[in-house]
Amino acid sequence: MNRNILLKDLSVKDYKETWDYQTTLLQEIVDVKIDNRRNDHNNITKNHFLFVEHSHVYTLGKSGDMSNLLLNEKQLTEKGATFYKINRGGDITYHGPGQIVGYPILDLENFFTDIHKYLRLLEETIILTIAEYGIKGTRSKGETGVWLDVGTPFARKICAMGIRSSRWVTMHGFALNANVDLGYFDNIIPCGIRGKAVTSMEAELNKKVDLQEVKSKILKHFKTLFEVDEFLMG
Questions:
Q1: Could you tell me the CATH number of the domain that includes residue 123?
Q2: Could you give the CA distance from residue 46 to residue 27 in angstroms, rounded to a whole number?
Q3: Which spans in the chain are helix H?
Q4: Rg (CA), the chain
Q5: Mean per-residue pLDDT for 160-165?
Q6: Which of 61, 84, 93, 213 is buried most, with the most CB atoms less than 10 Å from its CB?
Q7: What is the pLDDT of residues 71-86, one digit of tens each?
Q8: Can you state the percent helix, strand and coil of the chain, rounding each to 5?
C-alpha cells in the first residue's frame, strides 16, 4: 500500500479547469487499478491532495435541486459568478476567494475501504483544525460537513463537503470558509438546507486568518487521522 500523498497548491484556479484536472488524476489511478486486475500486475497507485482557491462559482451536486440557486443567468453574470452542475454528492454550494478548498484524490484501498469513515475523518480534520483557533465545530446528524452550535437556533455551517468515488478513488472534497465573503451564500439555499446559516472563521473570530497557516494545520491533522506516511510535493 502507498500511503504517501502528492501535495499541490494550485493557488487561484478556475473551477472547470480544476474539475478537469481532478478527473484526469482520478482516471490515471483507476487505469492502474484496472491494469493490475486484468494483467495480474502489482503497480502502486498514487494519491493526491490539491489545495485551491476558486473565483466566484456555484456548483450543484448530482442529486441537487436547481431551485436552490436563487439567481438567473443574467444575475450570475452581474455578480461575476459562474455555475456548474457536477458529479459529486450533495446539493448546491459556493466557492470563492478566501475559502480553503481541498480535493483529496486518494485510492482508498491504500488506506481503508469505507466511504462513511472517509467522510467522518474529513470532518474530524476540519473540527481539529478550527479547534486550534478556539472554534468548536461538530457534526449535524444527516448533514455532512462541519457545523457550529448544532441543536440551537443559531446552528451554522463553516465547512461544506461533497465527494465522488470510482473504484475506491475519491475526488472533490471540502470547502472551509476562512475569510470568504458570506454575502454570496445569500444567493443559494446552501446544501439545500433551509433555515440554517453559513459562517466563516473570520466571522467567528472577528479577524482574518492566515490561509497558509490554516492549510498547514489541515495537513497536520489529515496526516495523523489518515495515517499518511508523507506529503510529497506533487
A1: 3.30.930.10
A2: 11
A3: 15-39, 73-78, 115-131, 201-205, 211-225
A4: 17
A5: 94
A6: 93
A7: 988 999 999 999 999 9
A8: 35, 30, 35
Average pLDDT of the residues in 188-201 = 78
Contact of 63 with 70, CB cutoff 8 Å: no
Domain that holds residue 93: 4-233
Residues 6+ apart with CB under 8 A from 165: 108, 115, 171
Q: Please tell me the number of Cα atoms within 13 Å of 26 on its side-chain side.
A: 20
Say if residues 100 and 214 touch (Cβ distance below 8 Å): yes
Q: What is the 3-state secondary structure (H, E, C) of 24-43?
A: HHHHHHHHHHHHHHHHCCCC
Residue 227 clears pLDDT 70, i.e. is over it: yes
Instruction: Report the chain's mean pLDDT, rounded to a whole number.
Output: 94
Average pLDDT over residues 4-28: 97
Positions annotated as catalytic residues are 191
As beta bridge partners, residue 85 has 60
CA distance 37 to 150: 45
163 bridge partner residues: 172
Q: Confirm if 173 and 86 have CB atoms less than 8 A apart.
A: no
Contacts of 21 (CB under 8 A, 6+ apart): 10, 50
CB 16 within 8 A of CB 84: yes
- Domain tally for the chain? 1
Which residue reads 446552528 in cell numbers? 155
Strand bridging mode 197-198 / 156-166 = parallel
pLDDT over threshold 80, residue 230 = yes
